[in-house]
Amino acid sequence: MENFSCPFIAYGDNALDYLAQIKGKKAFIVTDKNIVKLGLLKPVTDKLNATNIKWEIFDEVEAEPSLDTIKKGGIAVGKYQPDWVIGIGGGSCMDAAKAIILLLARPELEPEALSVLEDFNFRDKGKKLMAIPTTSGTGSEASWAIVLSDTKDNRKLGLGTPEVMPDVAILDPVMVMGMPPQVTADTGMDVICQAIEAYISSWGTSITAGPALIATRLALQYLPRAYKDGKDVDARKEMMNAAMMGGLSGCNSMFGLAHGTGHALGGIFHMPHGRTVGLFLPYTLEYIINGSEEALVKIAEIARYCGLNAGSDKECAKALIARIRTLAKEIKQPLSVKECGIDKAQWEKEMEGLVNRALNEVMTMTAPRVPGTEDLEKLFRYAYDGKSIDF
Ligand SMILES: [Fe+2]
């Protein structure tokens, strides 16, 4: 049996009005200090007040939330016993909210055990999860994945379980209008990468392909507009929709090699997720079309759907890769590792770690062409210099 899980999605103008319809007495808001400072909680708490729902804020989430933070949030939520846990923010806040509601159901567990291996049944206990994104990137609002970081071992943990797909996702453009251009660019590259990787994933199906394809076209069209003019409401709305569909299609299939290699780069050199996966996307697509006829056809399908009809499948696939590079340039994203300011000697010194991290990612395994150690080393070196993949 295959299945496709999806939240109830309220979107577009005044989507936050949906809060007037929810039932419950108490909500536990999981967010970060920056969101509080930007005043982004107020439109949500005003609505909760109007509905007579009490709320408490946990604002200690950091980028790539640590196990310690989640533990702290788990203790706080256990004391408060809310009906709703609401993650408000970027992927980190929404992922933290997912981990925290799982701990509400199973307080005896350590955060590293929040995976498919356990049952949580939090809905049977009357608990519900809501996600309200303030960036357009990971699509965590429509995904059951949870990424945490183990700060002791300096590693990222890919956790989560289908149970923790949010009950409700609210995509209201007021929450993303103030996103700065750099964050718009970094997170937007993740949307493109997730959508394309979900479409070509070896675990993809015809059901995951639909949202993936549309998300790619929307992101290619609207990301440059959202970057150039943050007040462009249509661009902001379509990027929110695209991000959600990228997350949705990706968690119901799987991401691929750009995520596998990007996580390795981000894990060692601590760079924003979207920037790292976006950087590797053109290189990994080149690598894939050089070795998988099936994926080549799929990448050409995406290209044609996005209006890049350049002739043969190979020409179309190459046109899509070229478009990704032009777009990255337009929104001032690095095209090579060198452009990230990483020293070559340092890159070489970390090579073994980069390769091992990439090899250990499930996402590397679900790519349509799976590299071994030798190919990965080569790919990392080509990406450092900004050289197109010819193997
Ligand atoms: Fe991603």
Please describe the structure with a list of short key phrases separated by commas or semicolons.
391 residues, alpha/beta, Rossmann fold, 2 domains, two-stranded antiparallel sheet, 15 helices, 8 strands, 51% helix, binds fe (ii) ion
How would you describe what is shown here?
The model has no long low-confidence stretch (mean pLDDT 96). α3 (67-80) crosses α4 (91-105), α8 packs antiparallel against α9 (273-289) and α9 runs antiparallel to α11. The chain has helices spanning 33-37, 42-50, 67-80, 91-105, 181-200, 206-228, 233-251, 257-269, 273-289, 293-305, 313-330, 344-349, 351-359, 362-365, 373-385, and strands at 8-11, 26-30, 54-58, 84-89, 128-133, 145-150, 155-160, 168-171. β6 (145-150) and β7 (155-160) form a beta hairpin. It has 2 domains: 8-175, 3-Layer(aba) Sandwich (Rossmann fold); 181-385, Dehydroquinate synthase-like - alpha domain (Dehydroquinate synthase-like, alpha domain, Up-down Bundle). Helix content is 51%, strand content 11%. The protein has 15 helices and 8 strands. The protein has 391 residues and is α/β, with parallel strands linked by helices. Strands 1-8-5-4-2-3 form a 6-stranded parallel β-sheet, sandwiched between helices. A two-stranded antiparallel ribbon has the order 6-7.
Ligands? fe (ii) ion
CATH class (first level) name of the largest domain: Mainly Alpha
Largest sheet: 6 strands, parallel
What is the CATH architecture term of the largest domain? Answer: Up-down Bundle
- As laid out across the biggest beta sheet, the strand order is 1-8-5-4-2-3
Overall number of domains: 2
Average per-residue pLDDT, rounded, comes to 96
Tell me, what's the shape? globular
The low-pLDDT segments are: none
Computed Rg = 20 Å
Topology-level CATH name of the largest domain: Dehydroquinate synthase-like, alpha domain
Report the count of strand segments.
8
Compute the number of helices: 15
CATH superfamily of the largest domain: Dehydroquinate synthase-like - alpha domain
SSE pattern: EEHHEHEHEEEEHHHHHHHHHHH
Tell me the fraction of residues in β-strands, as a range. 5-15%
Q: Helix share of residues?
A: 40-55%
Structural class of the helices, strands and pairings? Answer: alpha/beta
**Through-space gap between termini:** 37 Å
